[in-house]
Design brief:
This protein has two domains: 122 residues, no CATH class; 35 residues, no CATH class. With 161 residues, it is mostly helical. Helix 2 links the parallel strand 1 and strand 2. Strands 1-2 form a two-stranded parallel sheet. It is 65% helix and 5% strand. The protein is built from ten helices and two strands, in the order H-E-H-E-H-H-H-H-H-H-H-H.
């Protein structure tokens, strides 16, 4: 929470939307500090977490059925797709289906936005990719003499990407 309160103390008054993997209930923390912010749980992380419980034999069909949910044209079309998914897989993979139900509102925020930007909203993979490249670039240097050196290194890493 301290990171978010620090951001707010620096003058950020509102955040339009956040996408998180919801570790340690980070979504709830965001709502506490920025109550007007729309929150989206990363769909890709949700899929990965759901698939942990699925046998290899069912995996292809299971993920295909999941795609009918997050690939729907809108939330109204996604809801019956989730119902059908639950009907088909609910008994066999209760935890996976329950997780989609429990997180439904935060998994479907991206439907409130134009189709062209939804994929950017529903996944944290872009920022994770960027962070990984920065980490790779800065890891080559074992230590930095000061904070400015770190900032410069990150700046160069981003420009190199």
């Amino acid at each position: 929470m301290s990171v978010l309160t620090d951001i707010k103390a620096r003058g950020v008054e509102d955040i339009l939307i956040t996408c998180t993997d919801n570790l340690n209930s980070f979504t709830d923390t965001i709502r506490t500090v920025f109550p007007e912010a729309a929150t989206q749980i990363c769909v890709v992380h949700q899929i990965r977490n759901s698939c942990r419980y699925v046998t290899y034999k069912d995996l292809k069909e299971f993920t295909k059925d999941l795609k009918t949910i997050y690939g729907a044209v809108n939330k109204d079309a996604a809801a019956p797709a989730l119902d059908a998914f639950e009907q088909k897989w609910g008994k066999k993979y209760q935890y996976a289906v329950r997780s989609w139900r429990t997180n439904w509102d935060d998994l479907t925020t991206f439907f409130d936005y134009p189709m062209e930007i939804r994929k950017i909203i529903y996944t944290t993979n872009l920022i994770e990719n960027l962070n990984g490249k920065i980490r790779k670039y800065t890891k080559a240097k074992l230590s930095f003499p000061n904070d400015d050196a770190v900032k410069k290194s990150v700046y160069f890493a981003i420009n190199k990407i």
